[in-house]
Amino acid sequence: MTNNANSRPATPPADNAAWKEIVVKYQKPSMWAALWQITNTVVPFGALWYLMSLALPISWWLVVPLAILAGAFLVRVFIIFHDCGHGSYFKSRGANDFVGFLTGVLTFTPYYHWRWEHAIHHNSSGDLDKRGTGDVWTMTVQEYLESSRWKKFAYRLSRNPVVLFGIAPLTLFAVLQRFPSAKASERERHSVWAMNAAILGMALGLSWLVGLKAYIIIQLIILMVAGGAGVWMFYVQHQFEDVYWERGEEWSYVSAALEGSSFYKLPRVLQWFSGNIGYHHIHHLSPRIPNYNLEKCHKADPLFQQVKPITLFSSFKSATYRLWDEKNKKLVGYRALRELRKQHKTAPR
């Protein structure tokens, strides 16, 4: 592997219990921390909608910046939703489910259905043999070289930044999440229909307040900002040069967490809006840690601090990585294909 800022030191073996003793201290939810986070997140989000309703008769030049800011707050709302899905936000399962459903309405995300798919992501992240659910479509170099022309075109299109961070997030939150997966259980399917009904009720109420056309425009802006930022965060957390990918038999939970999930070190204001989820290595090591305890856990032991951070500036390089090179165990861009194609042709079958 290359020796760069994103390189990871070797992680302890999966049977090493040291990390378990550390993280258990930070798995305890705090009702006051949770309620305060809801207050400083959901209340401002609602206040921004109210301000937009007042600004509409004056000028769209006032509305659009408020909608963009509301999109930033919606990212933080989604982190609350996310923690409820892990059962980590409150001690009470009922409280997690209740707040998870309400924040799901705001984020256009069906709670139980998303929770089911996200659990699959946590159990398969970094496993090359279990790709396809709750992750970004990632092909190996060999898979790409052996694909049809149309599949290559589809893959390149899906990896285009405009599609990946613009069109895809809006399509996901506004359209795709309105329909349950064919593999979903009855409860997950029902959660999609219940969420659709709740979202429709919210849309009718806000349309009555600001007008249908204004609601659609404002909601689209908010979803584009929040969805684009959210997908970017998720992408950077699992798509960097020396990220961890292994086949099933070689896959390690600890390595997938500490080497396959980034420590995205953001400026304080962006860390606040993203609900500390940049400490993604800690989150994958223990999803039971609520977001308001992630930074404390990271600072608690040198084991976690060995994970080299990805900064806001260095993270932009992640957009150039397209394919997983199994031989060299790193993500590469399309420019590397020429040499890799030669190796593929000369390799023994």
Architecture overview:
The structure is a single chain. This protein is mainly alpha-helical and 349 residues long. It has one domain (18-346). It is 60% helix and 4% strand. The protein is built from 17 helices and five strands. The protein has helices at 18-23, 31-55, 60-85, 93-107, 111-124, 141-145, 149-159, 161-174, 186-210, 212-238, 253-258, 268-273, 280-285, 294-300, 302-305, 312-315, 337-346, and strands at residues 139-140, 263-265, 309-311, 323-325, 330-332. The chain has a three-stranded mixed β-sheet with strand order 1-4-5. Strands 2-3 form a two-stranded parallel sheet. A hairpin with a 4-residue loop joins strand 4 and strand 5. Helix 2 (31-55) packs antiparallel against helix 3 and helix 3 (60-85) packs across helix 10. The longest helix has 27 residues, at 212-238. It is globular, with a radius of gyration of 21 Å. Mean pLDDT is 91; it is low at 1-15.
Strand content: under 5%
Mean pLDDT level: 91
Sequence of strands across the biggest β-sheet: 1-4-5
Overall geometric form: globular
Order of helices and strands: HHHHHEHHHHHHEHHHHEHEEH
Q: Please give the domain count.
A: 1
Tally the helices. 17
Helix/strand-derived category reads mainly alpha
Weakly predicted, low-confidence segments: 1-15
Proportion of residues in helical segments: 55-70%
Tell me the radius of gyration. 21 Å
Could you tell me how far the N terminus lies from the C terminus, measured between alpha carbons in angstroms?
Answer: 25 Å
Q: Can you count the beta strands?
A: 5
Reported for the largest beta sheet, the result is: 3 strands, mixed
